[in-house]
Amino acid sequence: MSEVVATNQTILVVGGGISGMTAALEAAECGKDVVLIEKNPALGGRTALLYRYFPKLCHPTCGLEINLRRIKSSSRLRVLTFAEVTAIAGSRGDYTATVKLTPRYVNENCTACGACADAVTTLVDNPSNYNLNQMKAAYLPHAMAYPQRYVLDPSIIGTPEAEKAKAACKYGAIDLDMQEQTIQLKAGAVIWATGWKPYDAAKIQPYGYDRYANVITSVEFERLADPHGPTGGKILRPSDGKEAKNVAFIQCAGSRDENHLRHCSRICCMASLKQTSYVRESFGTEGKSTIYYIDIRAIDRFEDFYARVLADPGVKFVKSKVATVTEDFKTKDVILNGVDTEGYHRYANTHDLCVLAIGMEPSVNAADIPAEIIADSSGFIEASPEGSGLFGAGCATNALDVNRAVQSATAAALRAIQVVNKTARAEA
Question: Which CATH class, in words, describes the domain spanning 11-102+180-195+363-427?
Fold first, then answer.
């Protein structure tokens, strides 16, 4: 690992998703030294796993590519992947972070040629596709991965498979002797941009996520539509590979519910509205979507997008909190049961596939962050104690779409810059 120099005038950013990247870049381009830490092998977070943004329906490459170019050209920004903050001590202007570095068994000589992946045969679950498929145990995390370096899964270390990967590499990039390391970094301010995770759909028992193969989550459906996803962009049912032309979307799956997540997750409505376009694009007039909703949250600039979907004859809206999801034993079709609250008609509607618009919760509960942070009732970072140099950013602070997460990150960067500026003046 290349040496990382950090002082009490350095800004430490924890989390390398779109919010962490934004905060780090804004601070670095204002002339501050920044260290960006990401626990996964590549930057990008969940934004890199989207097929398209709403409402423009453009691919995330259009946003991530710009940020990656900025990172590569910055002399002030240092990136550590496979790194995790395990402890933090000190006070505003003088923090010391303890960082654990996980070995990737591939050094900086890697050219991403893929020879190591060609050499191994062992398959492991693919987290970039939410484990819907498998990948080689020597892998590039995803198409836009930064750094563009392969990773060896630890399951093959010490086996002939690892030796095959090493022998196949022409550049001496495979280092099977890499060990876990612990380092300490100084910082004047710390930004927590640890992002979000989908709520565990298996906890919503009436919807049968853990019992019926054709009940999936919205993040899984996003990967099905992506050409880089597990089905090459084809919307196919997990149970039998049949084309899913008739898709049900259940809104507020785990959100706005005292038994699960009390908060509105904000993005779910727009995610489902967006995903109806995937069904339409895949199957034309044969593609049918039904959105089962309590309310539709599509405000400001999103209202026009909602209006376009509402006008689509292939999309039906049913105002209802779905009671249960069952399965046709023979066909594996899913059956949604409930009452339409506008007409109070009972329904038992059959669909090829059911997509749960799953709620957002923080990837790291604020109460579990190794620093003094104030958390709200949902585990998001609410505030920092008075006089603190610790700040939350993006979805670590609330359920936000990409646009609002970036705005939050910029604000956090400005606060951190103010802290290190004061530190510098005090030491001058």
Answer: alpha beta
